[in-house]
Write a structure and sequence with these properties.
Elements: E1 28-31, E2 37-40, H1 43-53, E3 58-63, E4 72-76, E5 83-88, H2 94-111, E6 112-122, H3 127-138, E7 143-150, E8 165-172, E9 185-186, H4 190-196, E10 199-205, E11 211-220, E12 224-225, E13 229-231, H5 251-261, E14 267-270, H6 277-284, E15 288-293, H7 296-308, E16 314-316, E17 337-339, E18 347-349
Parallel strand pairs: 2-15, 3-6, 3-14, 7-13, 14-15
Antiparallel strand pairs: 1-2, 1-16, 4-5, 6-8, 7-8, 9-12, 10-11, 17-18
């Protein structure tokens, strides 16, 4: 048998991104009593510093990087109507975009604990490039799933099918280690409810191992195991959670990711903090967060959003110590989670967990 041949991306001048080296620069940092942090600075420099000082400490990393739109994206103030640049998504070419993203993925891999996962949120225009590049960085055996986030939005005039989905690629740090995993469930199909009701089914097999039929039990079902196509609506213009930040994602989307791939007190990292959705959801679900962004607009949006949620944030300047992990990384109890409604719903816990208490504070 011939040895397997790796499939890789190539472009002129491509190099292997270093995971270490001089992190350089200074940054401002805001910390919380429970050990969470928001850091302003170049995310590559910050991540390199954290990977060097506190490797293998994060359980979950979520990346919502620029989508290679080659546009400058701004946030509009609802009161004054003035616009400020939130982030610049212009690139010399696709290779430059992939080099920048690949460098950050390589460092984040060092920051993940063996049981950890990373979610890379991209669109169909770049997902196939990012998938092959991530296979190189993490190993194709570390690929776990491709989640399709399907949404409805105002249709556009185009001689094509409407684009109504994003792609979320999940990779594991170490495929040989049991990952952090809390199963999620969605409502049963109408046909299933009509036939079997709301109780669990039991499969009945023939002697040869072939499934013959199903039977119903007396135990209530928690629903069907959640699939990899998620139908969650985009944020409406008048949604209460809308901040005005141009790339804001709905909390319902991040709730599924954070709840499934982390436990209370785990560290969740968002290297493109943006509007702060990941940080707000992680804090509300009892996780510690580490958010990084270079944009003044993003940092102000995150601070205001977390303050409104009652999170205490204390500013420390110029390179404070990084967030570190606490406790045994894998000795966590598992609790089933379920979804109340089919679309855009909040997660409901079968058994409540006690989240760390946070002290309210108003930020200036």
């Amino acid at each position: 048998m011939k040895p397997a041949r790796d499939v890789t991306l190539h472009w002129p001048g491509k190099t292997t991104p270093p995971t270490h080296g001089d992190p350089g620069g200074t940054h401002d940092q805001w910390t919380t009593p429970d050990g969470s942090a928001l850091i302003q600075g170049d995310n590559l420099a910050v991540l390199k510093s954290l990977a060097r000082q506190a490797p293998a400490t994060a359980t979950l990393a979520y990346l919502d990087p620029p989508f290679f739109t080659n546009q400058v994206h701004s946030k509009k103030d609802r009161t004054t109507g003035k616009e400020r640049v939130a982030f610049d998504d212009r690139w010399a070419d696709r290779a430059a975009y992939l080099e920048a993203l690949g460098a950050r993925l390589s460092v984040l891999r060092e920051l993940l604990a063996p049981h950890g996962s990373i979610i890379i949120h991209v669109d169909p225009k770049t997902s196939h490039y990012v998938k092959v590049m991530a296979d190189e960085i993490f190993g194709d055996d570390a690929f776990a799933s491709e989640i399709v986030w399907r949404y409805r939005r105002w249709p556009s005039r185009t001689p094509n099918f409407q684009r109504v989905h994003d792609v979320l690629l999940r990779y594991r740090k170490d495929p040989a280690v049991a990952p952090r995993w809390n199963p999620l469930y969605e409502p049963l199909a109408a046909s299933t409810l009509a036939t079997w009701g709301t109780n669990k089914q039991r499969a009945v097999f023939e002697e040869g191992g072939r499934r013959a039929r199903s039977s119903s039990t007396s135990e209530p079902t928690v629903g069907a195991p959640m699939g990899d196509v998620w139908e969650i609506g985009v944020l409406a213009p008048v949604a209460r959670e809308r901040t005005g930040y141009p790339s804001q994602k709905p909390e319902a989307l991040l709730e599924r990711i954070v709840a499934a791939l982390s436990d209370p007190d785990d560290l969740v990292v968002d290297a493109y903090a943006g509007s702060g959705t990941t940080l707000a959801v992680a804090s509300r679900l009892g996780r510690r967060f580490l958010g990084v962004d270079q944009s003044d607009v993003a940092i102000e949006t995150c601070l205001a959003r977390l303050a409104e949620q009652g999170v205490t944030l204390t500013r420390r300047e110029n390179g404070a110590r990084p967030v570190t992990n606490r406790g045994a990384p894998c000795a966590k109890p598992r609790t089933p989670l379920t979804v109340a409604r089919a679309r855009g719903s909040r997660l409901k816990r079968a058994e409540p967990r006690q989240a760390p208490a946070l002290v309210s504070s108003r930020l200036r």
